Amino acid sequence: MSFVPSFSDIESAVDIIKDVVIETPLVESAELNARMGGRILLKAENLQRTGSFKFRGAYYRLALMTAAERAAGVVACSSGNHAQGVAAAAAILGIPAVIVMPADAPRIKIDNTRAYGAEVVTFDRLTENREEIAGRIAAERGSLFVPPYDDPHVIVGQGTAGLELMRQAAAQNASPDSILVCCSGGGLAAGTALAAQGIDPDVSIYVAEPQGFDDTGRSLRAGERLRNPALGGSICDALMAPMPGAVTFPINRHVIAGGVAVSDDEVRTAMRYAFGTLKLVLEPGGAAAFAAVLAGRVETRDRTIGVVLSGGNVDPGLYAAILAGM
Amino acid sequence: MSFVPSFSDIESAVDIIKDVVIETPLVESAELNARMGGRILLKAENLQRTGSFKFRGAYYRLALMTAAERAAGVVACSSGNHAQGVAAAAAILGIPAVIVMPADAPRIKIDNTRAYGAEVVTFDRLTENREEIAGRIAAERGSLFVPPYDDPHVIVGQGTAGLELMRQAAAQNASPDSILVCCSGGGLAAGTALAAQGIDPDVSIYVAEPQGFDDTGRSLRAGERLRNPALGGSICDALMAPMPGAVTFPINRHVIAGGVAVSDDEVRTAMRYAFGTLKLVLEPGGAAAFAAVLAGRVETRDRTIGVVLSGGNVDPGLYAAILAGM
């Protein structure tokens, strides 16, 4: 890694992205607060461009590219949200983009990535290695590979969500005791922690992961990077990175207070609550951190808890099936 | 009517409601703007307490009640969103509430109204008169009847949505050429117009109504209050008032530029777009004004258009059925 991302990097990034990245609202629900016995502040990144926070890191990374780098294009691999983020950022900046996506990614994510003008290359998630495919394309074309999380610039970009959360909370006379973010490779977690603790060193950051994909939580407890036993099987298609990142984990082991694992059913319940009460569309992975709160896996009574609602890109058929459980 | 509501009433109302009513975000989507060729500013009142703008008028009206009035309670009749607004406001202010609701109102709206602690009395929308039932209850108990729109205080309360929209637009360096609001009895339309034109006399306010329930649009063209031919049959359960209000229409005929009618299919398309791109849950009536924009029924090219997304209380079964059309 070329540098260790810092709070001041994130502060500077806000100025670079501010005309393109949406300052998403920090939503608060009186009903949710009453239910949880505290103040729950929801950072609605599902309302971000491309429907997830991933646009932040992608746009920030691409905005730093030189003219010569831009001409040679970018390559990324992603199950969907990073794909859309890179594709949309590339389109805005006039950069050719190739995205390597699993063939079983949600249709809405593949379609949207193509709609942003990117070239999509699919692969079999169980038999092929996406990094190898992306690396080969990058080498052939001289393109920049844009990692989904293992890149200090990407971490800085994702951190702008946490910086906004803290500033918006302060404007609402709230000071979070802790913040929950979902975690796949750990980029949002690292960036959010650096941003939030740069403002208030006492705020605790927790990661929420799907049960069976709680590699970051287990790795934090073990003090070393541990791999998930399976590559697939969670409803949270966005949260199935095989293990903590080589760049993110050395940061996260210092700044993350711990991890909680949520079940698919807890995620579905959170998605239904977001539909029925918050009126927000969340995808499974985007509801994971909120699910941890709603299921009572973190103390909320008399506390102020920030939660990143990280994405809303869910296929309508799956969404309808989940609503059928109401 | 006891007084004619004015811009300054709405300005004052903001101070009275500000600790309880949510200042909902003004959402903007780059994809929507690109599609429509202009700036579309979406006032997300589906994120309001109780899931619709109706909480504004209800809470403001009840907040003005004296201690003696409060002890005798309130009565309201509503297909659902005004019901929830009054029930929630009454609960917050410790006022007993009876709500008269059609037996065929969406289950979510009836359930939520009861959950706020109100007593619900149902009636048959085709054979019984809800005003008579509510009037009888109010007379028996000495309670205050809270009309859904034909009340200057309620109009003032709804107008706070329009005032916020204009102030938020200014903060985003935008000046709406026109604003679209849905219309049933006309309270939101009247309040929004008074608020917006108090800030910018040149902004045009248009109402969106379901086809077959475009009584306000037709009445504006005729110069007199005209009745809808049917009492039911639109997907927009919230927008089926039989005719323009006796209090609202004399205001609206001076402040509303015109009306557009939208089909059920256009409303469904708008709900799907809100799901897939905006990540917002809208109920049919809450999507009517947006449907008019998305269907191209108003000029958007090189214009700045404010749109009130007025509510998000939709039964999950209906929502799933609408998503099935994607």
UniProtKB/TrEMBL annotation, chains A, B:
One of its GO terms (molecular function) is ATP binding. Coiled coil: none annotated. It comes from Govanella unica. It comes from the Bacteria. Residues 19-311 form the Tryptophan synthase beta chain-like PALP domain. This is Threonine/serine dehydratase. Belongs to the serine/threonine dehydratase family. One of its GO terms (biological process) is D-serine biosynthetic process. Its cofactor is Mg(2+); Mn(2+); pyridoxal 5'-phosphate; Ca(2+). Keywords: Lyase, Magnesium, Pyridoxal phosphate. InterPro entries: Ser/Thr_deHydtase_PyrdxlP-BS (IPR000634), TrpB-like_PALP (IPR001926), TrpB-like_PALP_sf (IPR036052).
